Protein 1
Amino acid sequence: MSATSDERTTGTEDAARQMAGGDPRLDKLVDRLPPRVGDTVTYLLKPSSRWVRIPSGALLIVGGVLSFLPVLGVWMLPLGLALLAEDVPALRSSRAKVLDWVERKKPHWLDPSAPKNDRS
């Protein structure tokens, strides 16, 4: 394989890995997720997945509002808002504030060498 094709492959992988928000802190949090969940989140955060991300975010928000029903929960609300933050600038600033808080209060969440299933 030539150096040019290696660079092209690496560039393709980097482009596929790049997320719409471009926040490295978000990338670090996604990297800590279990592989299957992390792959799904990475797919949803790609700019080309907008047609899946917006309905998914809206459905998660509706599920969070209906959290009094069985199976649905309040956890769906922030997840839906986080997905919509990729496409709604007003929510993007709120997501940045949350990531700032995580960086200040829970820096070990952003540490790649920390165990992935840390409950703290």
Protein 2
Amino acid sequence: MAEAPAIEFVSPGRFEVRNPSPGSPVPHAPIPAGATHSQPITGPDQLRLHTLEIARRARRSLLIYTPDLEPWLYDDATFVQACLEFVRAHPRNQLQVLLADPTRAIREGHRLVGLARRLTSKIALRRTNPEIDCGDCAFLIADDMSLIMRPNADQAAGLVSHQARGRVRQQRALFTQAWERGMIDPNLRSLYL
């Protein structure tokens, strides 16, 4: 085996190392871009804005857990268009909606229900099983990263979290459990003849 040629090394200079003394406070580093951050949502305008933003950012899955597909939030033409663009962006993209009572959405001709009837392979709607108590909360999950959580579904207040894998994993597990026990409502299906 041949010997490798010698490498010439030139030092760029001398550097001083200052280790903190034991017991001294450690300075706080700035939060890097993309780190977990959450902010409160107060009011319907903020909630609509964040809901639309998360729908537009979604890349693989959108999950909606809602009492009745609140028209003031989910029956907005811009939001429904964002959902349409999301499901068309990739063949595997899925939108799943789990709601407690679809009566109002069906009676009033909710845009998202109409879209789901046209795109049955991309958008699925189910009713929650009355035997499962999931509380009074409502939430929206995009992929494994973003979450809007409303502890009280009757209020337009809550928390939006980005890059929050732990929180999202917890809510996704709740959604998956409720989805698996959810019921297919024939009124939510397409009525084309």
